[in-house]
Write a structure and sequence with these properties.
- The structure holds 2 protein chains of 2 kinds.
- Chain A is an all-alpha fold.
- Chain A has helices at 17-30, 34-46, 55-67, 76-82, 85-90; one strand at residues 71-72.
- The longest helix of chain A has 14 residues, at 17-30.
- The model of chain A has no long low-confidence stretch (mean pLDDT 79).
- Chain B is of the alpha/beta class.
- In chain B, helix 3 packs antiparallel against helix 4 and helix 5 packs across helix 6.
- Chain B is globular, with a radius of gyration of 14 Å.
- The mean pLDDT of chain B is 92.
- The chains are: A mainly alpha, B alpha/beta.
């Protein structure tokens, strides 16, 4: 599922009858449009963002984040120290230069 | 233009502070396909650690939702780790070195972070959430290539 939904650019290309038949058959098999198949191929071949989750799932995750409970502000340097905090508390001798928060 | 989301951006999206709105704004732009932000396994592990140690379930679900918005994550590979080790000294901690190296290894030269320590990293530009002009520029460039 793609998030690049701003399909504003038109691209016209010529293909052989056989290529067109293959595209149409593949599109039918996947239940997609030929245009979607070509967009897939462009992204797979030449890069592009492919998310793990669908647009709906990502939007739901965003909405949960928006409406969820919050915590007080923790300064960036304090966040950096959190990972080592338990060790600092148990072994302050290893961190003589660090002031306890 | 692709940019990297530091762990603090995800935490501040659930923080009662002036950082919350700009962080949510950028996450919304990514989710809607108007911005090309990404993060890594290491950054999300930092968030998860905080979520699991925070009291009163204040951050419950944050890591899963961030993963839901941003997956797939950039990996911390042998190449990333080697580059992190070779970054010049300074005030950057080990996690931040890994994030900086993840950016540079993946050709990403912009990090969205409230942590000024990244300002010392060569070839990496930091965009602070409170810098309205820089955030506007970041979003104006959308998901087009750098």
């Amino acid at each position: 599922m793609y998030t690049m939904l701003m399909l504003t650019e038109r691209l016209q290309i010529l293909v052989s009858p056989e290529q067109k038949q293959r595209l149409e058959a593949e599109a039918r098999a996947r239940g997609e449009s030929v245009g979607g198949l070509v967009r897939d191929a462009i992204d797979e071949q030449y890069g592009g963002r492919r998310f793990t989750f669908s647009d709906e799932e990502r939007t739901a995750a965003l909405e949960r984040t928006r409406s969820a409970s919050t915590i007080p502000f923790i300064a960036p340097d304090a966040l950096d120290r959190i990972a080592g905090r338990e060790i600092e508390d148990e072994h302050p001798e290893l961190f003589p230069g660090r002031a306890r928060q | 233009m692709r940019f990297f989301l530091d762990a603090n951006i995800l935490v501040y999206s659930r923080s009662s502070s002036e950082y919350r709105d700009p962080c949510l704004h950028v996450l919304a732009a990514i989710t809607q396909g108007h911005a090309d932000g990404c993060t890594s396994t290491a950054a999300l592990e930092e968030v998860w650690h905080l979520e699991l140690t925070a009291r009163a379930d204040g951050l419950h679900g944050l890591t899963a939702d961030a993963y839901g918005m941003l997956a797939p994550l950039l990996p911390v590979t042998d190449e990333v780790f080697s580059r992190a080790l070779s970054l010049p000294g300074g005030s950057l901690g080990s996690n931040d070195r890994v994030h900086a190296a993840t950016c540079l290894t993946n050709g990403i030269h912009t990090i969205f972070s409230a942590d000024g320590d990244f300002d010392s990293v060569e070839n990496l530009r930091r965009v602070d959430p409170l810098d309205e002009h820089a955030v506007g520029e970041l979003l104006a460039r959308g998901s087009s290539p750098e």
